[in-house]
Amino acid sequence: MNSLFYFLDTCPNNIKSKFENVNFNTFDKILKQNEICNFVYIIKKGKVKVYSITPTGVIYLERTHCESGLFGELEIFSDMPVLDYVEALEPCEAIKISKKSFFEWIKADSDFSLYVHIQLSKKMYHASINTKTNATYSLKYRVLFFLWNFFNDHNLDRVSKDILVEGVGSNIRSVNRIIKELTNENLLEYDKGFVKVKDKNKLVDIILSSNHNSLLDKSGGQP
To answer: Residue 49's closest CA among 173, 216, 165?
Structure first.
């Protein structure tokens, strides 16, 4: 299927002319949990994180979006308040699209409409996998599962401990304990606030030998 930037290039000019180019600084909150959302955003450059805050103050990271990431469409389609915070992890350039223009675009381009619905379905599917993981598995496994998903999705070899803590929806003391345990097992390295997988083959073996295997095979290992 064509990329999101392809659909931007081929978007009818009478619709595209209404789009707005916007910039965000690191830590800017683009969407806020429980507020009304009237716009869809496409990331041109940069990275954002999508997360929720529980009534007890625990931060739970849902996903991260990089270049060509699309967000706000769930709230636009459902006409419901914003489900999660969206916060810039670094300076970002984005395209801001009103609800009216977004619907006009979908109606004008059936291929783009299909693209949006496929991407949204994938988000919901993987959110369900993550929810099941956090409800069913031990913290140690959840840490490993998050690292495997994160590195697969972003083609990186390390992640900050803060992101890891949010990704498993736990507290820093418990995650520190797991990091120390996995470091002693020679699976991870920890240095100056960043976690790196030392033995990727062992990590893959642990993940694929779990009861999660059938879901991961179908999901392609993407978060």
So the answer is: 165
Domain boundary residue, one of 66, 88, 120: 120
Q: Which domain holds residue 104?
A: 4-120
Q: For a pLDDT cut of 70, what percent of the chain falls above it?
A: 94
Place of tokens 């030998």: 209
Among all chains, which residue has been given the structure tokens 């659909």?
7
Amino acid 211: pLDDT: 54
C-alpha to C-alpha distance for 164 and 53, rounded to whole angstroms:
15
**Backbone phi, psi, residue 158, to 5°:** -155, 160
Binning pLDDT at 50, 70 and 90, where does residue 217 land?
very low
pLDDT given for residue 36 in this prediction? 94
What is the number of structural domains in the chain?
A: 2
